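Bug #77: duplicate submission created two jobs. Keeping one. Sequence:
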Amino acid sequence: MSFQNPVFIPGPTNMPEALRKACDMPTIDHRSPLFGQILHPAREGVRKILKSDSAEIFIFPSTGTGGWETALTNTLSAGDKVLAARNGMFSHRWIDMCQRHGLKVEVVETPWGEGLPADRYEEILTADTGHEIKVVLATHNETATGVKSDIAAVRRALDAAGHPALLFVDGVSSIASMDFRFDEWGVDVAVTGSQKGFMLPAGLAIVGFSAKAMQATGTGTLPRTFFDVHDMAKGYANNAYPYTPAVGLLNGLNDACAMLLGEGLDNVFARHHRIAEGVRAAVRAWGLDLCARSPEVYSDTVSAIRTPEGFNATDIVTLAAEKYGVAYGTGLGEVAGKVFRIGHLGSLTDVMALSGIATAEMVMADLGLDIQLGSGVAAAQDVYRSPQPTHSRAAA
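Kept job's structure:
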């Protein structure tokens, strides 16, 4: 694998040089006021990217999986009931975590390639007159299938049912790349990580809690120590952590937030949509289909591309790495061997995307698929040659 080529996995993503350098800093006293000058601006930057005025932001040395555990263990008790749809590998893993913690999960089995069934949620919530369901889980962007779900519709389902359940959203592969509206959508806990839209190395679980979620932390009795938000809040009040923080990553997060906000969130989202549209145009030109079943659920951060029946899609990923030094994502779970994934999020430009499209073409042709070299590149070029917004260094 070449360190010179960009990666096209859906995370960790390519890092701008400025952010890589921001993470590479001298040791400081993490219990000094100096650390507070890194910590508090980073938390405020995340709050702005979530589009929230009041969310409590907690940043743990972990990954998105740790963020899921933070959400559950701080608000729920053993035996509590959770409602969730299983429409991909990451929704499946969050459900599995709930079950391992002794929670009762009502699972709505949903075809992989479709978004969350908000109408079915509304039916279940309306029927739950005793309000046994304490939390609704929602995966905003299912990374395994390249499917975006309508979180506003899930909130409307809760409201239409008059149900008080909390709304927890996995935004790991959407936040900082696709529009996310914490306050407007009535999200109670949002979970993300450092290694995708924030363009940093893996290592930070980033969560936002609403006032309602914070209130629930007073009644939840699931065990937690490392992920206790109250311990974390006490540390923050003293410019510190309850244990040793990842200072370099937090410094990088501070700069990443400044970079994204400097570009302008609307420009960030438009850039991701534009690059994704170019990839989707290439897929059509190849005569292939996306795993996502309809345009309204197409993800702007990752495309899962179906290969012909009987062809092992993992071979594309393997040969791309071995022959051309380029990384794509494999299929996971139910779509393993049936799709390969092109990640198009984080620090990426039209020109970088073209290199990934061109390499995918070469690999598929090498493997004997009926792909005309240049077809996908030309289709993407037609998209990228159209007028585009001005981007700042976040895209550089």
